[in-house]
Each structure stands twice: as structure tokens, then as C-alpha cells.
Amino acid sequence: MDLVKASLRENYPPNLYLDVHHWWKEGFLVAENSGQVIGFMACVVNAPGQSRVLMFAIDAPYRNQGIGTQLMTTFVRECAVRGMKSIELEVRQSNLAAIRFYERHGFEITYTLEHFYTDGEDGYKMIKHIGAA
């Protein structure tokens, strides 16, 4: 929860994390260092053949070390094995580092989400098309 507050500037109730984990355990990936959570992805299957990244964050001191790439690669592989055709996510328009990261991993901006975040900031919907393994 602290990582989400610091990295995503959002505040979600604790049961949301447990619910997401329950919905799709393989879509809840965690990176740790000496027992400390330093990054995670929380994803769901939101339609047949489609997954959605709900939350994705890496603790600031651990960014640009390949941890996010490792999590994303693992998740994309899991989606392909399960026959998913696409992955979608939302990102703040102001989060240029995240947008570049997603673009490097094959995501494309598809449209703007006006006032999407709780503080009123606009976001982008991004989608990556994948094939089955």
C-alpha cells in the first residue's frame, strides 16, 4: 500500500489487493529484496483473451535496474501462455517515464481518459497486442 501511495499517488483499500490476488494469482507479481517489497504488478483478466494491468509500481530507489522489465516480461509470457490477445493499462499523462517504459515493451497509446485519476489528472489508455504461445 505504501508503494502504491508513493509511486502511483493513489490510495486503495487493503482488501483490493487481496481481491486482485484472489481473482488471478498468476497476475499478481511481486519483486522483493531481502524480504522487502520493491515492486509489483496487479493484473486481472477483464474479458475473454484480454488482461488489464491495474497497478504496476517499482520503489524509486530500485528503478532503472531491470526489475520492471523482469516483471513485465514475466507477465506478458504468462498472458501468451494463457492465450491472451491483448493487455491494456492506464497511465497518467504526466508520467513520461512510465509511458516510455510501456512503449519500449510494445504498448501503444490508444486514447485519452479525461479526469481519470482521483486527483483529476487525465490518463492514457495503452494497449499491447500479443499472440498465443
Descriptive notes:
The protein is α+β, with helices and mostly antiparallel strands and 133 residues long. It has a single domain, classed as Aminopeptidase (3-Layer(aba) Sandwich), CATH 3.40.630.30. The chain is built from four helices and six strands. A six-stranded mixed beta sheet has the order 1-2-3-4-6-5, with helices on both faces. Strand 2 (36-47) and strand 3 (50-58) form a beta hairpin.
Quick summary:
The chain is an alpha+beta fold and 133 residues long. It has helices spanning 2-8, 14-23, 67-81, 96-104; strands at 28-33, 36-47, 50-58, 86-92, 108-113, 123-129.
For this entry, give a set of tags.
133 residues; alpha+beta; Aminopeptidase; six-stranded mixed sheet; 6 strands
For this structure, the CATH topology is Aminopeptidase
| CATH architecture field | 3-Layer(aba) Sandwich
Major β-sheet, in short? 6 strands, mixed
Strand content: 35-45%
Which spans have pLDDT < 50 for at least 5 consecutive residues?
A: none
Secondary structure: elements and pairs:
Layout: H1 2-8, H2 14-23, E1 28-33, E2 36-47, E3 50-58, H3 67-81, E4 86-92, H4 96-104, E5 108-113, E6 123-129
Parallel strand pairs: 3-4
Antiparallel strand pairs: 1-2, 2-3, 4-6, 5-6
